[in-house]
Amino acid sequence: MSWTADLTERVVKAIPGGYAAGGPVASEPMAWAAVCLAERGRVREARLAGDWLAKTQARDGSVGVTGQEPTPAWPTGLAMLAWRSVEAVLHKAVYQDNIRRAADWALAAEGRTVERKRQIGHDTTIVGWSWAADTHSWLEPTAFFVKALTRIGYGDHPRVQDGVRLLVDRLLPAGGANYGNTIVLGQELLAHVQPTGIALWALAETPAQSPLIEKAIEFLDASVSADTTTASLSYAVLGLTAQGRRPAAADAWLHAACDRELSRATNLYKLALLANASPASTT
């Protein structure tokens, strides 16, 4: 059995799961599991993950972080992506109502804006999505919603277009991105691998054009290696692959990361991310 096939089986066995072995079942890991299993033809298991997300969905359309925690609801974007992935292999709109209600909620959910200040480098007036209600828009939740809403046909919606503007605005002048701050008190902040990968992954299906995107690709290409931790490595490979710049050594790095995870008590979150970034997946 190949390491990717073994990884798929490990994802299946880890369902339902979350961020820690034996911990609460969580929406983000379950969504990533649904996506990778759908793309690997494991339809029944992908449907199980998609159904769990559907049962977790609140009446208002949002999906909370766990089955017992309806808020914050930033995983709603990933749930939409999961449902659409499962529908694509089933060739049936089995989650049509779930996707519609989630999209309605997402399009109404807005990160809080504030007036621009000279001490802050990014445009604080662009409306994106936040980690929690009534807080400022940040890069990663905005990326998840931009990706999901684009996939389900809302790419031309003004909210999605604003989300794309926000993602480009939050890219660092020197290359890369972090959680969403660029310059504070005249000091450019450091870039991080994981949010840079997430931003590039989301922007790949949009018409966004900016020299900052190429700088982000260059930062990520120079920063990722066999020593990069599992989640960051997975998102980096997803981002670079989506941009048509998958590193030649990516499969070897992912294989080594998989071996590391399987040598200890790992979790669905890391296994599913690895599976989405590995050769059998094209997300």
Automatic annotation (TrEMBL):
InterPro entries per record: Terpenoid_cyclase/PrenylTrfase
Protein name as it appears in the record: Prenyltransferase and squalene oxidase repeat protein
Native organism: Posidoniimonas polymericola
